[in-house]
Each structure stands twice: as C-alpha cells, then as structure tokens.
Amino acid sequence: MRAILGFGSICLTLVAAGCGSDPGTGSCSAATCGGCCKGGQCITTATNAACGLSGKSCATCLAGTTCVNGQCKAGTCGGATCPTGCCNQQGDCLIYSVQNSMACGTSGATCQSCGALPCVSGACQTTGCSSSNCAGCCNGQTCLPYPQQGPTTCGMNGAACLSCGSGQCVNGQCLNPTCNTSTCSQGCCNAQGQCVLYPYQSTSACGTGATLCQPCSGQCVNGQCQTATCNATNCSQGCCNAQGLCILWASQSASACGTGANMCQPCSGQCVNGQCQTTPACSGATCAQGCCTLTKQCIPWAQQTAGACGTAGNPCQTCTGVGVGCASGLCQNVWKVSVISAIVKAKSTGTDTWDGSGSISGPEPDPYVIVKVNSSGKSGQTKYIDDSYNPVYNQQVLTESEQALSFGVTCEVREDDGILPSELMGTCPIPSVTAGMLAAGQATLDSVCTSYVTSVTLGFSK
Fold first, then answer.
1. What is the pTM of this model?
2. pLDDT digits (tens, 9 = 90+) for 364-391
C-alpha cells in the first residue's frame, strides 16, 4: 500500500562534502571553534590579520584583500563585499553577529557608534523592546538578538530574557544539562536531559512542566498532545484546519492562515502571524522573524535562502562565501541534510501486519522519515516508499547551520497505508552532529533506535 507520511528507521550517515578542518594546535579545532585557530586559541572576531572559519588555521589577508565572512576577498570593504555588515577604520567587514553598540552598520557603510543604544542587525535601536521589533529577547528595553545572547540572557520573540542556569543558549532556546521545573516550565525534558520548549516540540517529543517528553499519536500544541480538538484554549495563536488540528502561526502559509482558533482561510497575498497581508507591508512590526524584499514583501526565516537572508524586518541581504547560507535570518556555515535510507522490522505478532490483514499488496510497511533539528525546531520529511523493510530515499529534507546541528537531530519513522491513521514505527535521536562525523563523511546510528526501527542513514553536504 502507499505511505503518505511515515517515520522510517533512523540510522544516520552524514555525508559531508565541504571544507575540511585544520585543528591547529592546542585545544582549538573545528569541534570547538566557529572562527579560526591561532596559536591554539579560537579567534571569533575575524580581521585581516586573522581570517578563517570552521576551526581552520587563521590566515593573513594580503594587501588589496579584505576578510569577509572568514575569507580573504579582493577589493576594499564596501557594499559589494560587506552587504550584511559595516566597515571599521581598519577596512575590516564587521558582520551583524560581531557588531555591538560601539560599531554598528549595514550594507558596507562605515561603522557607527550607537552610544547607549543597542545595535540590532546593523541598526541602532531607538524604540522600546517588544515582540513587534525584537526577534530575540528583551533585557529591559534593550533587544538582544541571538548572536548577543548568553547563558544569563536567553529568549525569543520579544519575551523577557531568562537565565539558562548551567545550560547553554542556542537560537533563543535554553539547552539545559539539568532540566527541571525552574528551567523548563514551558517545555519537557528529553532523554539527554535537555529542555525542549513548546516552539521546538513535535509528535516525537511533547510535554510541559519539565516532565519527560512523550510521543504523540496526533499533534503537539503547547506541550499537549492533540488528536482533533482544536479550540481557543490550545490554539490562540493559530487556526483550525478541516481535520480539526491546530496550525500555529509559524507553520501557516497563504493556503492556511488565521488566528484565535478560527477556521483556516486561504490568502490572496501573504500570511504573517495569522493575518492576511494583501498589500506589500513589510517592517519590523510585521516581519520580526524575516527580512523585507525591495518590493516590501516579508520573507520569513523558513523560506529564506543565501540570496535573501535577514531578520527584524531589515532589507534582505545576500550571503557570500563558500558553504555560507542562511539560517534563522543570519548568514552562517550551513549544511544540506538528506535521508539516504532506513531499515525497519516486521511486527512481532504474525497475525498483526503493518498494512492489515486485508491488504492486497502484502504485510510490508510503507515508511517515511521525518528529521527535526533539536535546537531550531526546523524539520523536513521524505516521500513514502511502498511495501519495504529497507526503503531507499536519497532525498534532501532540510538545510541548517552547523551550530544548530551540533545540538543534535531526531528522526521519526512512520508507516501510512493511506487508509488508516499513520503509525509511529520508532525514533532515532542523535544527541550531537559532531565535526568528526562531518569530516568522516558517514555515521551509522542503530543502537539508539527504538521499537521497529533498526537504523536510518542521513547525508550531509554543502
């Protein structure tokens, strides 16, 4: 039988086709440094005297070249070589992630001081901090975007900055080694002891109040497993589709838009936070988690590419450099994630089969695989494969930054015969996609897979 959606077995093969890593000396390496290594130290602020990425040895840019996004490039710093940053007095390009109140700017302009005001995505912030103008968290009236957050100031969507305790802050989310009610009241604790907040939960990890994350047979909305009971209580920031499931703002599109648990409606224009925008109206207030095109259209993070990247309603910019793409509105070192294949098992009882006793095509399952990034919540899924215990997909499902992948991914394998509700066959969590895995090009995971999943093979490429 056919399988509309299904989580296949999860054994990951990470195929990395990209830059190799030069661990340098000392403790600095591709596994510990996103910048370059010099004398065993990680240099995170790139300059012409220390230029590089991904833990490689720092290089000195020759006369007539400038360090841009970790690469020495010909020509002086300007709009063409520094579209997502400003130029300091030394002619270095300071991209958004390394800017501060003393050096702020965009489009290759000269870096300026903001005085006592914060610098957010190349602009001095002059208004108060709220969800309408801050994709990060609010520290008083100061917006802290993701690159400027830390363990004591972490958050997203304009909420008040919170402390992660002894954990880490990644893309506005606390990843805590000690998950408890103090650090994870609006989330659940996974098997690795990390807090999975509501925005990053899925059918494989759902819960609230720091309880152990549980799988859902339906949909996970604000920590609650929902089968088909969409209402104003569990879907205030979303709309209800024809199947009675809640479609939250982050998952809405022009074909399904709405808020307050009203019925989802199609838009003739664009759907932003549950509202149909029929006229071009893009700004920080309407596009906090996206960038604005020249025609004033909002491009949300989930739809951004290296050719259109940005956040907080700023103009969309082009990401430059080998292997540099767009993730969460920032130009970063990104990877394409593919599902190569999976291996699943028959049900343990001979009378109970995946496709049911009345199936005309046999007892074999129709599996598909869903891959979700633990830290960012981004996910993608494969096509289904008919009647197979050893499905081969060779299908790209998502792109994500190397930093986000370092906090792991979770794969779900499901079986769907197109008639009955899909069944969860099992999961395979990867606690961390390490630099060593990427350098090796392959990694097979099977010991962590559950239930009827033996393995899943993933591929990674630039």
1. 0.38
2. 888 999 999 887 778 889 998 888 899 9
Please answer whether residues 58 and 67 qualify as being in contact, where contact means their C-beta atoms are separated by less than 8 angstroms: no
For residue 347, give the amino acid letter: K
CA distance 70 to 80: 16
Position 222 pLDDT exceeds 70: yes
Q: What digits encode the pLDDT tens for the residues 270-318?
A: 787 888 876 556 888 788 888 888 877 888 887 888 888 888 888 898 8
Number of H helices, E strands in the chain: 2, 32
Residues 6+ apart with CB under 8 A from 85: 93, 94, 95, 96, 99, 105, 106, 108, 122
Contact 265, 258 (CB under 8 A): yes
Per-residue pLDDT at 392: 93
Burial class (CB in 10 A: 0-12, 13-18, 19+), 266: exposed
Strand partners, 332: 325
Region of residue 102 (phi > 0: left; psi between -120 and 50: alpha; otherwise: beta): alpha
Give backbone dihedrals phi and psi of 57, rounded to 5 degrees, phi first.
-65, 135
**Distance (Å, rounded) from C-alpha 40 to C-alpha 37?**
6
- Rounded CA gap, 256 and 250, in Å? 11
Rounded to an integer, what distance in angstroms lies between the CA atom of residue 448 and that of residue 180? 24
* Cβ atoms 293, 309 nearer than 8 A: no
Query: For position 289, what pLDDT does the model report?
Result: 83
* Spans of all domains in the chain: 228-278, 279-320, 330-461
Higher-pLDDT residue of 330 and 117 is: 330
Matching CATH number, 330-461, of 1.10.287.110, 3.20.20.70, 1.10.443.10, 2.60.40.150: 2.60.40.150
Within its chain, how far is the Cα of 260 from the centroid?
Answer: 26
How many angstroms separate the CA atoms of 413 and 344, rounded?
A: 9
For residue 454 the two structure tokens come to 């033996």
